Amino acid sequence: MATINRKWVVRSRPIDKVEVSNFSLDEEPVPEPGDGQVLLRSEVLTVNPPMRMALVSGGITGKPYPIGRTMYGGGLARVVQSRHVDFSEGDLIQGELGWQEYSVIDPRKRLGVKKVKAPVGLPETTLMHVLGSSGATAWFGIHEFARPKAGDTFVVSTAAGSVGAIVCQLARLAGCRVIGIAGSDAKCAWVRDELGAAGVINYRTQNVEAELKVLCPNGIDIYFDNVGGEILDTVLGQIAFGARVVLCGGTSQYNHDLEWYGPKNYFNLVYKQATMSGFYVSNFAHRNEEATSRLTSLLKAGSLRYTEDVLHGIENVPLALIRILKGENFGVPLIKLV
Ligand SMILES: NC(=O)c1ccc[n+]([C@@H]2O[C@H](COP(=O)([O-])OP(=O)(O)OC[C@H]3O[C@@H](n4cnc5c(N)ncnc54)[C@H](OP(=O)(O)O)[C@@H]3O)[C@@H](O)[C@H]2O)c1
Q1: Which terminal residue of the chain, N or C, has fewer Cβ atoms less than 10 Å from its own Cβ?
Q2: Which atom of ligand 1 is nearest to the CA of 163?
């Protein structure tokens, strides 16, 4: 086992785009577990768009993430040394590990870190997307808020993203006509050909308003919003009577700090007697099993597809964040450390 732990520490706040120089890769001796503690070696980490907000405005916490602290981030890790009766060497652990190679946790005190096992026949990394937070977000967003009916026209933004790709497929399985919006021709082709969308729009090269008019001639029954901003506004202008607009994320605004774009077409919600609801997946944590058991069955039956965008090595964790904020990733961002 290595004797040095490498970790990314936050050194400054992004002014505009996130830069590698906002972090430093520091070294320290691998920590020793005390009584009741375990030493973890991180195997896979992931990044997500709200990290940009957390670094500047603080996002949901309202407090910017502290300078000088190891950057937060979830992943999968292996127990390499245990001084806790319920944990053994080789156990797989999932949860908040931080951008680092090794960490010591006290399982009695650390919330959100748990022993996990991938379902037989499925890769462990599925625990980090379809069977993790992205899957739960898609599942509860759809079933609690979108409430799809067969024949509904269902539009989703960031359709090739970690959450969006699952949303596309669950909506199609519910009998909806799915229109996916994504940021490249390759992503659009995947959403159409592999995820089964009836129509796709590349928002970087096409006129979203004009394309939606052609693809949704009777209006949009459901919009699952991952981006906010102008695309949300454009969709609001084309909702159908009784539409459900589900606010999941606002990635297009995460670089804007406090100056967010506000929708001008919101009064269409009144004309169309429609609803717009935001939700936060952690409010459904007590029902995670419901989502994961259904998503496991769909994965095993080959009814759900996913793709992973893999980088290797602790050196590349900030780059993974930079890539997703530019839309350069294609699939769930994963950084493999072993
Ligand atoms: N409410 C909840 O509980 C909850 C839970 C999880 C995630 N979320 C939110 O859901 C959204 C999707 O999350 P995710 O983890 O699945 O992320 P993701 O879709 O994997 O995020 C990366 C993608 O975002 C798109 N993107 C990047 N910059 C953009 C910009 N300026 N404007 C528009 N799109 C941009 C890019 O796709 P394109 O190339 O297609 O643009 C990029 O590949 C995020 O906003 C996240 O905050 C909410």
Answers
A1: N
A2: 16
Residue 194 DSSP SS3: coil
**pLDDT tens readout for residues 11-34:** 999 998 999 999 999 999 999 999
Shared domain check, 89 and 207: no
The conformation of residue 144, written as its DSSP 8-state character, comes to: I
Return the residue matching tokens 């050909």.
193
Cα torsion angle, 267, 268, 271, 277, sign = negative
Residue having the nearest C-alpha atom to atom 42 of ligand 1? 327
pLDDT digits (tens, 9 = 90+) for 263-313: 999 999 999 999 999 999 999 999 999 999 999 999 999 999 999 999 999
If one counts the domains in the chain, the total is 2
Cα 249 to middle of ligand 1, angstroms: 7
User: Cα-atom radius of gyration of the chain, to the nearest Å?
Assistant: 21
Same domain, 105 and 11: yes
The domain that holds 190 is classified in CATH as: 3.40.50.720
The atom number, within ligand 1, closest to the CA of 249 reads 45
Domain that holds residue 208: 133-282
In a domain, residue 91? The reply is yes
pTM score: 0.97
Query: Does the residue 142 lie in any domain?
Result: yes
